[in-house]
Amino acid sequence: MIPVSIVNVTSYTGLELLRLLAGHPEFVVTSATGRSAAGQRLDDFFPQLAAGRNHNPTGHNIGSLVISEKAEKTELAFVCLPHAAAATTVLELLAQGSKVVDLSADFRLHDARVYEEWYQHTHPAPALLETSVYGLCERYREQIAASQLVANPGCHSTTAILALLPAVAAGLIGPDIVVTTLTGISGAGRGLKLSSLYCEQDEDASAYSLSGHRHLPEIVQELEAGARDGGHPIQLRLAFVPHLVPMSRGLLATCYADKKEPSLTIEEVRAVYTAYYANEPAIRVVETAPHTRWTSGTNLCYIYPTLDPRTGRLVVVSCLDNLGKGAAGQAIQNANLMCDLPETAGLPTSSLMP
Amino acid sequence: MIPVSIVNVTSYTGLELLRLLAGHPEFVVTSATGRSAAGQRLDDFFPQLAAGRNHNPTGHNIGSLVISEKAEKTELAFVCLPHAAAATTVLELLAQGSKVVDLSADFRLHDARVYEEWYQHTHPAPALLETSVYGLCERYREQIAASQLVANPGCHSTTAILALLPAVAAGLIGPDIVVTTLTGISGAGRGLKLSSLYCEQDEDASAYSLSGHRHLPEIVQELEAGARDGGHPIQLRLAFVPHLVPMSRGLLATCYADKKEPSLTIEEVRAVYTAYYANEPAIRVVETAPHTRWTSGTNLCYIYPTLDPRTGRLVVVSCLDNLGKGAAGQAIQNANLMCDLPETAGLPTSSLMP
Amino acid sequence: MIPVSIVNVTSYTGLELLRLLAGHPEFVVTSATGRSAAGQRLDDFFPQLAAGRNHNPTGHNIGSLVISEKAEKTELAFVCLPHAAAATTVLELLAQGSKVVDLSADFRLHDARVYEEWYQHTHPAPALLETSVYGLCERYREQIAASQLVANPGCHSTTAILALLPAVAAGLIGPDIVVTTLTGISGAGRGLKLSSLYCEQDEDASAYSLSGHRHLPEIVQELEAGARDGGHPIQLRLAFVPHLVPMSRGLLATCYADKKEPSLTIEEVRAVYTAYYANEPAIRVVETAPHTRWTSGTNLCYIYPTLDPRTGRLVVVSCLDNLGKGAAGQAIQNANLMCDLPETAGLPTSSLMP
Amino acid sequence: MIPVSIVNVTSYTGLELLRLLAGHPEFVVTSATGRSAAGQRLDDFFPQLAAGRNHNPTGHNIGSLVISEKAEKTELAFVCLPHAAAATTVLELLAQGSKVVDLSADFRLHDARVYEEWYQHTHPAPALLETSVYGLCERYREQIAASQLVANPGCHSTTAILALLPAVAAGLIGPDIVVTTLTGISGAGRGLKLSSLYCEQDEDASAYSLSGHRHLPEIVQELEAGARDGGHPIQLRLAFVPHLVPMSRGLLATCYADKKEPSLTIEEVRAVYTAYYANEPAIRVVETAPHTRWTSGTNLCYIYPTLDPRTGRLVVVSCLDNLGKGAAGQAIQNANLMCDLPETAGLPTSSLMP
Fold first, then answer.
1. H-only helix segments in chain C
2. Contact check, Cβ <8 Å, A52/D270
3. Residue B262, preceding bond cis, omega within 30 degrees?
4. Residues C230, C171: contact at Cβ < 8 Å?
5. Which residues of chain C have a CB within 8 Å of the CB of B287?
6. Is the Cβ pair B53, C354 closer than 8 Å?
7. Which of A319, A293, D183 is closest to B203 using CA atoms?
8. Residue B261 carries which DSSP code?
9. In DSSP terms, which residues pair with B102 in a beta bridge?
10. What is the rounded CA–CA span in Å between residue B55 and residue B66?
């Protein structure tokens, strides 16, 4: 078994990592940190992890792990801290020799000026930005396997990039793109915010971040890189508006783009998508509009490319579980690659439905 | 008091009309039809309308009304039937001399060929289509007041048209438009469909009608008419994708369009919107992204125009209650105009929140 | 118009009072306080109250009211503060000569020792406790009308007391009673608590306060008083367990009690309930199990008494909107009585459904 | 691998069996029936099971299984039919030599007269009723392992019986018992019923089956048997009222009973519960009120016994996933015993949360 740690286990992402790693054949969580909960047992903080008074658990009982203030050295660490706080911790972990999957935004953008523009914060290790690997396995499988530090992509970013990557790489579409996303509330995290209250989100839909969402520069960086690597460089004019809808999990992107060639058919589009994702274990290119619920608890992303019959635009609908392929699932997929394990180890493909 | 009837009262739209008309100062429901429930009292069918065993209700008690098979003649009828069935009934009611607000799609489109293309049904009275009035009060107030038949707009259509009308009428935007809508489940009606089950929609988001939603031709018809009447005729290239999200009520549209003049500022846009809707009682042009819940139970539509800071596109977010301004509320607003009553009579402006 | 004030308008109860009073024929809100929001306009704090940029509102525009630190003197004040804070403010308002409806628990219990046992706080005006009026209109209509201070009942309490009052007053049941309640999340208020987050309550049901909920002593006080006044004094042995369920509004109580006379029939029970609530405008004694949604946005309480066919126990199911008859609605019903207005003025009876 | 079949796979229970069996180390689904869907592939009916256009699945691909009209012979069959229909099929499967876990109510009651009273249907094999095994593993582990036919308990029944069994077996409580349950909507199945529509259940709580729910006789049969086998025979006077609350999954029971000995302490109660469920893998006796969400997707049942501090009554709160330990999970637990596999094989213990 390979010992791993979860930094900031008290987040929703931390909790989802605990759930997935409980079923992982190789990784075992031997360390978990959480500033506010340091000194408590995991099952004090998350009572559902308690083994029960009636048990004398033998072997590994995750609930008995004591939450620590600082991460101990393990083979690999999953860092679930917010941006800025994450970078500092990541540097320490790297110095200790741990492999790191950073679930924050701190190492996703390769250009420090872009990072500072969007996050209003001077990056502590700008040189690392240039060499950090963006943890989208479908794009950077080899680099991830060889890297000590992987920046796990954002949830909106993953959904939108996977939806459009085959089209930009094949040069099918022009630069004018609109991306609309719908996200469940867990994307806002477990912090105490008025807008995260049940009574504020129940029965409500709204658009947010209209002046610019922080996942936008990731999307543009990766789509432009994908276009360049595909031999069809392009400078995108991409508008992205996320929406909050009343559900715990789920992220759905609907992406609109103009075809370069009016004659492009849906069969040709599908052939491009099918080939691009041939045998990708986490991607399902489908022929009907997908539902976020198909992905609950899994590491899957469903992608449905189609053509708008009246305007001819390419419309791609994609969806995933924002805590799964959008966060903890993808982090484990990355960790599997980094530790030379089967890429799909410990990652469910059957969704909880209903 | 003015006697009115509700045809197909057993629908969600019928129930919302009952709720709103219970608080209306002039209209009183004296007839209600519903094929499957004919012969029952309203409070047998909707037990929440029962006065209670402890009451000896004096005066008007709506629960005691017996649901009939066919509408009796009243001053005005609200028709809540599905399309095709509606047209037949509307013709009979008009022949009886009733005023009619038709909440179906049967008289919204002025071109019979377009109707037949989208509804796969030969229209029984194509001549009426050419003279029917599209019941968007903010556009056709005088024609509505003078008409015997008003076609109440669709819920997606109302939200999208109100969002973009000022921009097309003032010639601010070009023909390339993307409209994304998010709708609550009540828009699918009260019929027994697998996709309307609680366990199918709970915790799920999905896009639907990707090959074309029936509200699209209304949107195009009315935006092009608005552009023409504003002196800026245009032929739109509009893509529209609706999404289902897990809530009962609410409809939110996010609309994207290219500015014609790159130099157009947000202040100029706001001035156009403010002037267009000056003192419109059902419209609130606001300066922050609105929430569907602000509209629950009201006849209000909130409209937030903004510019995407990176691409310069005009982005307009609008929202309303699909059973309110998107159906029953707007129907009463139309009926008020047709009966020479104050336009806002009986229409709530305070939303139920939370 | 009668000027009224809302103390702590920033709560859910405050917001519901704003909604209901917007439609009240006599009361007008001329003052609203809220410590954290003092100095802001109401429509800064609740943007849904904004009239819209396109309006030049004439007459009363509630959104423009500036939230103050301290309540100004008005004819009547609704106090929405938490317990302890409420008592201090109530005393000041009474000294100013205002009538007060206190929505907190501070003046509900007549025995200062009981108050201090449950609220862990020394009561600042124990003498007032003995003379304060419990604002359950169906019980204390005359005293309420004559009082300067009315203690608005708790939401669980109202639902359970109304369910069992006819039975104890008529001496139908013995002392062994079990009360189970189900409540929506708004009952927990608008404060930032982990347990109030969307992702903590969505898709979850749980029992809480198993060591004793603060509404229990109210329920016992009022049921025992009702029994005494009905000539059937009794000392109850009442267990009460509330449950949280994922909805914003709604409170449902299921109450179980042993019949005193095994021969008591359901017809006799219904006759007792019907007579007890004869022509009560807020109570509907019904013959089928009621739904909380029948009450959304109203001041109604539905009551369904039945007999368990196997054990013979009396089972009474009652429900209401916890923000309506369970809080703001009942507060207005009390205020109407205190100001000699029709008891039902401004109180909706048609629920928002769906 | 052991081939198994799912009869009526198109139900929610069938779908949950598919999900759980996809992760089972020994069972493989080789046959699935569904009358209305016969001839379709599983992934036509449940599109989330589609492997995706981009895959050339090798090995087992459940989506490609064709739904049949009649079950083929397999080692073991899970029967998810409604009662009455189930019995006929079960008899055929037994005659073929298959082992059967019947998830319907048809073989749960040992007395044919009781069955016929509650199900209004003459039982086709009353002799089998007397020998059928009630599939509550914690009670009948040996009999289950030796049986060809196991009757999987109802979801309300499992929750209530597990909550009270230790108390009745140890003779701690008297005959007067009240059981309140809260259930998610999936308990009503996937059939098209008005009351199962999203807009009918969203934001609503209600009590139902007040004249008697069909799980009541199971509860009484098993608690009385448990009391008898524990040496404390008793005839119960048990009232049971289930409630519907707006969530997909989850079942919570709150049970109230009088202690026989007033001096009984909570420590003694906990000792009895801990001993009764010593090392039971699916049961967690806990010291804080549990949440249904702790059980989502698992085969766990949490049990929290406590004493009401004022009345001294024993109050036990228990919860589980109605599709997990309340249906498909328990069915697999039974199947594991019947096929001599480890009892917990393929049964998740980490819940999906949030």
1. 12-22, 42-45, 85-96, 112-119, 126-131, 137-146, 155-169, 198-201, 216-229, 266-276, 329-338
2. no
3. no
4. yes
5. 53
6. no
7. A293
8. S
9. B79, B151
10. 19
Closest to D254 in 3D by CA, of C220, A247, C244, A94:
C244
Determine whether the interchain pair C309/D212 forms a contact, defined as Cβ–Cβ distance below 8 Å. yes
**What ipTM does the predicted assembly reach?**
0.96
Identity of residue C297: G
Q: Which two tokens stand for residue A8?
A: 């900031």
Q: Where are the domains of chain D?
A: 2-131, 156-322
**Is the backbone peptide bond immediately before D354 cis, with ω within 30 degrees of 0?**
yes
User: Closest to C50 (Cβ–Cβ): which among B276, B284, B293?
Assistant: B284
Q: Which amino acid is at A212?
A: G
Q: For D79-88, which contacts have Cβ atoms below 8 Å and span 24 or more sequence positions?
A: D79/D7, D79/D8, D79/D103, D79/D104, D80/D6, D80/D7, D80/D8, D80/D9, D80/D11, D80/D13, D80/D14, D80/D17, D80/D104, D81/D7, D81/D8, D82/D189, D83/D119, D83/D121, D84/D119, D84/D121, D87/D123, D87/D124, D87/D125, D88/D124
| Chain A, window 252-281: residues with a beta carbon less than 8 angstroms from a chain B beta carbon | 252, 254, 256
Distances (CA, A) of D299 to A56, C58, D332, D346, D347: 19, 62, 9, 10, 6
- Side chain identity, residue C319: C
Amino acid residing at C110 = H
Of C18, C54, C278, the CB nearest to B280: C54
Q: Say if CB A296 and CB A351 are below 8 A apart.
A: yes
For residues A33 and B209, what is the distance between their CA atoms, to the nearest angstrom? Answer: 46
pTM of the model: 0.97
Read off the DSSP letter of residue B327: I
Structure tokens at C79: 């106090």
pLDDT tens digits, chain A, 354 residues: what are they? 999 999 999 999 999 999 999 999 999 999 999 988 999 999 999 999 988 888 876 666 899 999 999 988 999 999 999 999 999 999 999 999 999 999 999 999 999 999 999 999 999 999 999 889 999 999 999 999 999 999 999 999 999 999 999 999 999 999 999 999 999 999 999 999 999 999 999 999 999 999 999 999 999 999 999 999 999 999 999 999 999 999 999 999 999 999 999 999 999 999 999 999 999 999 999 999 999 999 999 999 999 999 999 999 999 999 999 999 999 999 999 999 999 999 999 999 999 999
- Strand residue runs (E) in B184-307: 206-207, 237-244, 251-259, 283-285, 301-307
Distance CA A50, CA D290 (A): 11
Cα gap D253→D240, rounded to integer Å: 10
Please report the DSSP string for C284-352 in residue order.
EE-SS--BGGGGTTS--EEEEEEE-TTT--EEEEEEE-TTIIIIIHHHHHHHHHHTT--TTTT---S--
- Between CA C335 and CA C26 the distance in angstroms is 11
Q: Which two tokens stand for residue A45?
A: 């903080």
Q: Is A201 exposed, middle or buried (0-12, 13-18, 19+ CB in 10 A)?
A: buried
- Does A210 contact chain D (CB < 8 Å)? no
| Closest listed residue to residue C162, CA positions, set C189, C143, C181 | C181
Question: What backbone phi and psi angles, to 5 degrees, belong to D5?
Answer: -125, 155
β pairing state of D206-207 and D133-134: unpaired
Yes or no: domain B156-322 corresponds to CATH 3.30.360.10: yes
Length of chain A in terms of residues written: 354
The class (CATH top level) of C2-131 is: alpha beta
CB atoms closer than 10 angstroms to residue B66: 13
